[in-house]
Amino acid sequence: MPQPLRLDPDRFFPIDPRARGVARDLFAGVERKPILSPHGHTDPAWFATDTPFLDAPSLLVQPDHYLLRMLYSQGVVLEALGIAPLDGGDFERDPRAIWRTFAAHYPLFRGTPSRAWLDHVFSAVFDLDVRLSAETADHYFDTIGARLAEPSFRPRALYDRFNIEVLATTDRALDTLEHHTALRASGWPGRVIPTFRPDDVTDPDREDFVSNLERLGVLTGEDVGSFAGYLRALAARRASFRALGASATDHGPPSAMTADLAPAAAADLYARVRRGGATAEDAGLFRAQMLTEMARMSAEDGMVMQIHPGSWRNHNPALFARFGRDKGADIPRPTTYVDALKPLLDRFGEAKGLTVIVFTLDDTAYARELAPLAGHYPALRLGPAWWFHDAPEGMMRFRRATTETAGFYNTVGFNDDTRAFFSIPARHDMARRVDCAYLAELVATGRLDEDEAHTVAGELAYDLPKAAYRL
Fold this sequence. Notes:
By secondary structure, this protein is α/β, with parallel strands linked by helices. It has helices at about 15-30, 45-50, 55-60, 65-75, 95-105, 115-125, 135-150, 155-160, 180-185, 200, 210-220, 225-245, 265-275, 280-300, 315-325, 340-350, 365-375, 390-405, 425-445, 450-470, and strands spanning about 35, 165-170, 170, 190-195, 195, 250, 305, 310, 330, 355-360, 380. Helix 11 (about 210-220) crosses helix 12 (about 225-245) and helix 18 crosses helix 19 (about 425-445).
């Protein structure tokens, strides 16, 4: 017998009756605020072409590394989920069979944020009222497929239905931005903007780094043979992004290390890494120098700078060799910030007009390092709980660890950081509920007046991200 699917209206709220009542009132004031999604990984082609989504697996399973990593950990091979090996090996091509495999393993996600997000999508977006299981897999597949064929489920219609005000994609430095250009020319009023992510031309450890530099030169018409020409090429790319509405950059180095080399030393370092085969020491120093160079450019052109350090990307070499990047094998590692950010902050920590938003996968650093840093340097802000901590407990740990030192106004609200377009409302719903739960606890324990809690709830949901990302 299929089990019912029902979203608890008090999900993520405190157990204490008084605090729960306050959380309900706070959430009622922010539930319907427009969604600002200033950092994400949706595909701009969806909105440029406005073509229908294909089916449940390609929409909900295959792009979601949260799902892939959990299934892989329990012995589900990626080929069974329709992921094609790079060597041309065989893989499951039948969407219904892929969905049945996923549905049969859905219990693996009990207690995870993925389960909460997906149940929200199934219930609130597709109007499904029974729980996903092996028994209901075909019902889900057919229902979702039928809905995706409706005009109201095309990307632009869903953008409006989800009450999205701004949605930022994340785009490589070498991206031609053709879909963003087409969007600008289409006359559609939705606001989908790019974000400049230059790791493909700033990380010498990438296997394609040297060839990417050559492509950067061709794309910009600059001579990247010198460090000065390389910096001009990056500035030109940033200008191209800004012309299409970009307000932010994003950087994903392995660590938060920054450097501030003398011009001649920086030029010599660039010459070494440009030749290829950079030593680990040179590669790390170059990434560190480029974070400071990007901060300098942001101080000049006004783009908000985001730093997402601390992930050992593609930790599983066999999986990387077989399937490539972004298949769920990225693993957090300890990350320090006080020493690492000092060269950048010594130079730009008080720069007027500069905003540097720092994220972490090491949440032990919040109270020890990041909250004190953001609570002092005018240029520094704390990004929300990220990736492995983008969950009710992680969000609550973030607030509890940072508020006493950094307050609310040295943070930037929430961003969903997702490839899963359909989960954006679910993620913002969760974040708003958790923030309201935290604020309600402050009210119930006499640490914040209720009228102030209502003000802060609205600021966290909308005002702070709008201001921080200059939207």
